[in-house]
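[recover] target loaded
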């Protein structure tokens, strides 16, 4: 899902950077109000885990890649899509600078797909479905959909850039990430369930030290 340098014209990259700057502004405001000495290390641990799972790439035709994302996990732990913006900006920047995964010019687009879209889709899908299908099924659906939609957004961006046709991009990215999303859904459920059992205080809906608690049934 990482878009390398050169796959998107610079004027389009600039648009995605503007979106990233706006998202980082709101994410920084959230961080000042919600991150404390306990939750900052948690954010760092999650960032390390995201870095690890995104490093396991599956080549996809026309030059991009498929991999698990983890945006839903971060968003659910903090109950805030702003957390995913911070995590993915740092992780994707490090990957681009030191590991040649993704690009600097395309950083805005990559954070948009995996951090902003991935985190928001996963969190709000969970919020919308949990009362109808239950907590853990809602987590699974949210994680799967976040991975799938983020991949399709990547395909749309590269089609707009003229990198490859939209129909081929949607099919290629969608097919691979529909399968990857199943794995991500299972792992997200396992991690959240483990945290609820062994460290419920690390989940935002149980942490009384955050400025806003979220009720989760």
């Amino acid at each position: 899902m990482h878009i390398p340098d050169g796959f998107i014209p610079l004027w389009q990259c600039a648009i995605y950077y503007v979106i990233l700057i706006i998202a980082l502004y709101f994410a920084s405001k959230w961080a000042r109000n919600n991150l404390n000495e306990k939750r900052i290390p948690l954010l760092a641990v999650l960032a390390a885990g995201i870095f690890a799972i995104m490093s396991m790439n599956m080549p996809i035709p026309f030059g991009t890649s498929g991999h698990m994302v983890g945006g839903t996990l971060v968003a659910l732990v903090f109950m805030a899509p702003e957390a995913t913006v911070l995590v993915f900006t740092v992780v994707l920047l490090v990957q681009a600078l030191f590991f040649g995964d993704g690009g600097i010019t395309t950083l805005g687009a990559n954070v948009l797909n995996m951090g902003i879209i991935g985190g928001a889709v996963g969190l709000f899908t969970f919020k919308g479905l949990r009362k109808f299908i239950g907590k853990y099924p809602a987590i699974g659906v949210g994680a799967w959909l976040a991975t799938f939609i983020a991949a399709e957004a990547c395909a749309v961006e590269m089609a707009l850039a003229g990198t490859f046709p939209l129909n081929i991009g949607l099919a290629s990215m969608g097919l691979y990430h529909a399968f990857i999303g199943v794995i991500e859904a299972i792992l997200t459920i396992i991690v959240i369930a483990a945290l609820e059992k062994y460290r419920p205080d690390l989940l935002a809906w149980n942490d009384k030290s955050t400025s806003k608690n979220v009720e989760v049934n």
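[recover] notes: Residues 16 and 22 are 10 Å apart (CA to CA).
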